[in-house]
Specification:
The protein is of the alpha+beta class. Helix content is 55%, strand content 14%. The protein has a four-stranded antiparallel β-sheet with strand order 16-17-13-18, with helices on one face. A three-stranded antiparallel β-sheet has the order 2-6-5.
Length: 532
């Protein structure tokens, strides 16, 4: 899939430095490049940070590269060290990782290296696979490449199978291979709304999933990571961290069910107790008017905020305005900062508040944060956040001593404590959803934080039963499931038009060949009819 093309001057330079034994320099070079390539694939499979994407960089251990890259010569010189010393380095560090930070180095290629993706070439000896014309020789090469990628990503696969630990280590996903191929073609030929960097990253993720699915016969394995906050994530490329279009292409025709306004629904589950303690003569709807409106009629709330924020003359499409508002309200419900100032995170990188990432224009951001409905919503969410945090401090003070629930200065973080509580509750609620589906013989295709994906639409009765169990078993009447139909990625319009044009051309050619040609039996048949 990926080839690293190395500066042609490197091998002669190594051969001059290490002439004996013959061929040793070439073998050492090939071993080093192979090691670097494997580390590159593993790094890209884990995913790039926004900074790495911007700088066209990736993460790897330079210490591991030096050790695994081999040695050469009588003095056992490390190939990596020789390259660096003599000006033939293939990678250069942007940021050096250390044991103190627990981070590996961020590196990028030098001008001695060119990264190339290989695509199939069309020739007369081809095979049609689900409407795609594939070179037969490439199919064989692809099978070898797929096997290599699979073994690289899952070196412990055979052991997990033998020990019966597959379900413990991995979540499997059924991949619609034809849909995924169509998505890749669209990315290559028609995608216009991606930057080049994002398009290339999406292509890499799609090809990676396709390689594994082709090797396994349609399955893709996601390695589980259990978070201290209660969620299950996955390392590398997964349904959770790819863009929505790629996720749909991977899964094909299916239905996605998620918890509606999940964070607000969860917090309002504690609103009755809060009101009973602080406002015994008032109702939840009165004290938490805007949070309740957000839960029951989000569209109405958004409509009342949209005009003051964007105005009549905005050049942004209404759909984009609504998307930005939904993202912003979700961020606020998670405790997003209302300040527009950036700060330095634990990795030493400058990070913008999420609201600033959503509203790129400062005037729109300021109008949003100044809107009285937004201010009221933030105030209500803050009241509930304080109530939840105080409850933990009073009843579970040891939780506040956990390092991952503290700020960089060592003080308990209210936002982290609230996120910790929510994500554990989210996991418990989704376990109820998954358990109920299992009882009814329904297979979950994929898990995406507060959502699950199934192949067929759930009946109204089953959906109601799931929601009732969610509400009863957690004593929270606010849980509801939203649904979205997902359709597989069909052949692109450009490809369909090309096929139609080719079909029309073949028909025209056939008609041209037959024009003026008269079968000798036609006249006799006509004559026979006439005689009758």
């Amino acid at each position: 899939m990926i080839e690293l093309i190395i500066d042609k001057q490197i091998l002669p330079a190594m051969q001059r430095a290490f002439p004996q034994p013959a061929g040793r320099a070439e073998r050492a070079l090939n071993n080093y490049v192979s090691t670097l390539r494997k580390m590159l694939v593993a790094s890209l499979a884990r995913g790039q940070t926004p900074m790495e994407t911007k700088l066209n960089a990736f993460s790897l251990s330079l210490h591991a590269l030096a050790n695994q890259g081999g040695q050469i010569g009588k003095k056992k010189v490390r190939v990596h060290a020789w390259r660096k010393k003599n000006g033939w380095a293939l990678v250069e560090p942007i940021e050096i990782g250390t044991n103190q930070t627990g981070m590996v180095s961020k590196v990028k290629f030098t001008d001695r290296v060119t990264l190339v993706w290989h695509e199939p070439e069309v020739n007369p000896d081809t095979t049609w696979v689900d409407g795609l014309e594939i070179n037969n020789e490439f199919l064989t090469d692809t099978a070898k490449a797929n096997s290599e990628i699979f073994n690289l990503l899952y070196p412990d696969y055979e052991v997990c199978v033998a020990d019966g630990r597959m379900a413990e280590v991995f979540d499997g996903v059924d991949i619609d291979v034809a849909s995924l191929k169509n998505y890749i073609i669209w990315l290559q030929e028609e995608a216009r709304h991606f930057t080049e960097t994002k398009r290339n990253h999406a292509l890499f993720q799609a090809r990676l999933v396709l390689a594994v699915a082709q090797h396994t016969g349609g399955n893709y394995y996601q390695r589980k990571i259990h978070s201290d906050f209660g969620r299950t994530y996955y390392s590398g490329t997964s349904v959770q961290n790819v863009n929505k279009e790629l996720r749909h292409a991977m899964l094909g025709d299916c239905w996605e069910y998620d918890i509606r306004s999940s964070v607000v629904a969860w917090k309002l589950g504690y609103a009755q107790d809060y009101v009973a303690q602080h406002y015994p003569n008032k109702t939840v709807d009165y004290v938490f008017t805007l949070s309740t409106l957000y839960l029951r009629n989000k569209a109405a709330l958004m409509a009342n905020v949209k005009m003051p924020v964007f105005g009549k003359e905005s050049d942004l499409a209404e759909a984009l305005q609504e998307k930005m508002l939904k993202q912003a309200f979700t961020a606020l419900s998670f405790g997003a900062r209302v300040s527009g100032k950036a700060w330095v995170n634990r990795n030493g990188e400058w990070q913008n508040p999420s609201i600033a990432d959503i509203f790129k224009r400062a005037d729109e951001r300021e109008r949003f944060l100044a809107d009285f409905l937004v201010c009221g919503f933030v105030q209500e969410q803050t009241m509930l956040d304080n109530y939840l945090y105080e409850g933990v401090a009073q009843h579970y003070p040891d939780l506040l001593k956990l390092l991952y629930l503290q700020t960089q200065s060592g003080r308990p973080s209210k936002s982290k404590v609230v996120a910790f509580l929510y994500q554990h509750e989210e996991t418990a609620v989704m376990d109820i959803v998954r358990g109920t589906l299992a009882e009814h013989g329904k297979k979950v295709l994929a898990n995406i934080r507060d959502a699950i994906v199934v192949r067929q639409r759930l009946s109204a009765d089953l959906k109601h039963e799931i929601e009732l169990r969610m509400q009863e078993q957690t004593a929270n009447p606010n849980w509801r499931l939203g649904s979205e139909q997902v359709q597989r990625w069909h052949a692109s319009a450009k490809e369909v038009k090309a096929r139609e044009a080719a079909h029309r051309q073949r028909i025209a050619e056939e008609q041209a060949l037959t024009a003026g040609y008269k079968n000798q039996w036609v006249k006799s048949c006509v004559d026979d009819d006439h005689d009758e």
